[in-house]
Specification:
CATH class: Mainly Alpha
Number of helices: 8
Number of domains: 1
CATH superfamily: CDP-alcohol phosphotransferase transmembrane (TM) domain
Helix content: over 70%
Distance between the termini: 27 Å
Strand order of the largest sheet: 1-2
Radius of gyration: 20 Å
Structural class: mainly alpha
Number of strands: 4
Order of helices and strands: HEHHHHHEHEEH
Shape: globular
Oligomer: single chain
Length: 238
């Protein structure tokens, strides 16, 4: 594939969003976008989502000093959802899309935001840093898969097993609230004791890794079939 074709494929892609909250968001987000003041631009919302990620990370780290900082992390998840979910919807509603710029900035800031969030969680007293690091690695693997699938097939997938960014935020918020009200009891397993957030982190890591492996295997099969078909179609007849 030529470099020119890769650029076009990356700019014009099909979004695959099949999540539990998808039907609600497809109705609610455009409604919210239509009611935002004219001075609010998509870049403002992207910046808000990034600010919220910093707030989440710092708040988790500060929970070492007082658990009340967990509520700042909880609120940060809501702000992050608002900014991250609405920037693209606002651009589409106002017909001011910038496909290449928007795709690059949105998803590069997403990767940075999630890196900060997982590091912040790992610095809190409620999740082991190694578990947070493994969960982050799983997220980045899925981000890599999404980028490769976009370039290879023009298909940008952000949902796996009916779960997407919104569902992950909800899990984080529920886990954070549970920890605030119940403290940090250690669940003793064979050879190791884990907190509730540790267990959630392990489950999320397994989900990310499983989604990456299964999706990559399926995509490789699709691409192999496409390449074989194209080879046979262009093979000269004897």
């Amino acid at each position: 594939m030529s470099q020119k074709k890769v650029k076009v494929r990356a700019a014009k892609h099909k979004r695959v969003v099949d999540t539990l909250t998808g039907p609600f968001e497809r109705r609610f987000l455009p409604w919210m976008a239509s009611r935002l003041p004219q001075w609010v631009l998509p870049d403002h919302l992207t910046a808000l989502g990034m600010f919220a990620a910093v707030l989440i990370a710092v708040s988790y780290a500060l929970s070492n000093y007082h658990p009340a900082f967990l509520w700042a992390a909880f609120f940060g998840c809501i702000l992050n959802w608002f900014g991250d979910s609405l920037d693209g919807n606002l651009a589409r509603f106002r017909h001011i899309e910038r496909p290449r710029y928007g795709f690059f900035v949105d998803h590069s800031t997403d990767a940075l935001a999630e890196t900060l969030v997982f590091i912040g969680m790992g610095m809190s007293p409620f999740m082991r840093f190694d578990i947070a690091a493994v969960a982050l690695a799983g997220y980045l693997l899925l981000s890599l898969y999404a980028a490769l699938a976009t370039v290879s097939m023009g298909e940008f997938k952000i949902s796996y097993a009916y779960l997407g960014p919104t569902e992950m935020r909800m899990v984080a918020m529920l886990g954070t609230a549970w920890v605030y009200f119940n403290g940090m009891p250690i669940i003793q397993l064979p050879f190791v004791g884990l907190t509730v957030l540790d267990i959630i982190g392990i489950l999320v890591s397994l989900l990310f890794l499983g989604a990456f492996l299964i999706s990559s295997a399926k995509m490789a099969g699709r691409l192999a079939h496409i390449d074989r078909t194209a080879h046979h179609e262009h093979k000269p007849h004897e």
